[in-house]
Amino acid sequence: MEKEVMTSTEAALLEYKEGLGVFTKKMPGLAGHFNAFTAECFKEGAIAQKEKQLIALGISVYSQDEYCIIYHVKGCLDQGCSEQEIFEALGVAAAFGGGAAMSQAVTLVQEAMDELKTQH
Which residue ranges does the record assign to the Carboxymuconolactone decarboxylase-like domain (predicted)? Predict the structure, then answer.
């Protein structure tokens, strides 16, 4: 039986999930409030969840938060974003974040999309 190899994107998502689990055990009140707040922010509303994920991805790229970049690439794909929609959001992020944001867009985002697209 061949052992499945985890991609770097899957490894980062697992590391984040495990870290959040430890934090939640140590700080259940704070984590509970934070999780409830973010769940409320990402609920369907006047802005669709798909667009909220694109906004979050753009902010993540602008701020160069690698875990959030990967998490929101997955969120975008889970919400049915096309590659073109993701690239347009990255363009807006690069317009504000310059070369640093563009470097995340052309490396980490593309790697995560390639690795996660096989799951969709």
Answer: 28-111
Give pTM, 2 decimals.
0.92
The position carrying tokens 């509303």 is: 45
pLDDT in tens, 82-120: 999 999 999 999 999 999 999 999 999 999 999 998 876
Asked if the structure places residue 2 within a domain, the reply is no
**Letter for the amino acid at 90?**
L
Q: CATH number, domain at 76? A: 1.20.1290.10
- Tell me the HSE value of 10 on the side-chain side, using a 13 A CA sphere: 10
Q: Which residues of 99-115 are buried (b: 16+ CB within 10 A; e: fewer)?
A: eebbebbeebbbbbbeb
Q: How many domains does the chain have?
A: 1
How many residues comprise the chain?
120
Please name the amino acid found at residue 23. F
